[in-house]
Probable deacetylase AF_0130
Amino acid sequence: MLVITDERFLDHDTGHRHPERPDRLRAALAGVAAVDNELLAGGVSPRRAERDELELVHSASMIDRVVAIAERGGGHLDADTPMGPGSFEAARLAAGAVLSAAEQLTAATTSKDSTGGESEAYCIVRPPGHHATPETSMGFCLFNSVAVAAASLAAAGQRVAIVDVDCPSRQRNPRRYPLYPGTGALSERGTGAGEGLTVNVPLPPGATGDAARAALDEVIVPAVERFAPDWMLISAGYDGHRADPLTGLCYSASDYGDFVRRLVPLAPRTWPCSRAATTSTLRGPRPMR
């Protein structure tokens, strides 16, 4: 697995009491190191997302506002979303991390000398991006990194599946992609060219990993197989963890490992489709223990 991260993500200064603070990145890196320190040792730094890449998803006025607040030393994008002078750079790197993952995996699997190469990547980034809409940064999020990468890949003619294991799905990537989950109702199946490509699986309060695994096995996995993506982008949020105070779900840490093990094999690996790969992007949850 390819790991993409950078110390510059720590420059996104939200204050030491904010739920989405630099300590979250440190905790994630420590967790990876505890499992396999060689993953971090062999990791790569991302490139910055360029302005035209951000504008595949976000309006010019939204981007300009983030730049302006950073240039004057920081401030608030909304009540929940503070930023400092280094936040614009960190947000560009976060979006660029997913783009870099796609580029690195493509190079690894299409090289004439390749005998397989990496087919999965984990982007350990901040700020998160899942609440950012085309017009507004909100909910701790500046730019929607997964949406930017999906737009870039789609513009190149690639089929992209976005799988979000988080809760709730309201406000995130759906504002950019009508085929992507919105408020989470079963009746929401996408609009226009994306009609029928939205698959929502509402779960009741208190649902455990067993319920989520059943949803993946019986609904999500078959839907992704029918779609036959070239790329799978996993929006790796953890708000469903039982320690999260807002969602009411009861997943354990090991449940998330099961989710990923079910999803990763869905990305094609056989030549000439070996460019297809899985990129998982860190985000959530709120508590820091």
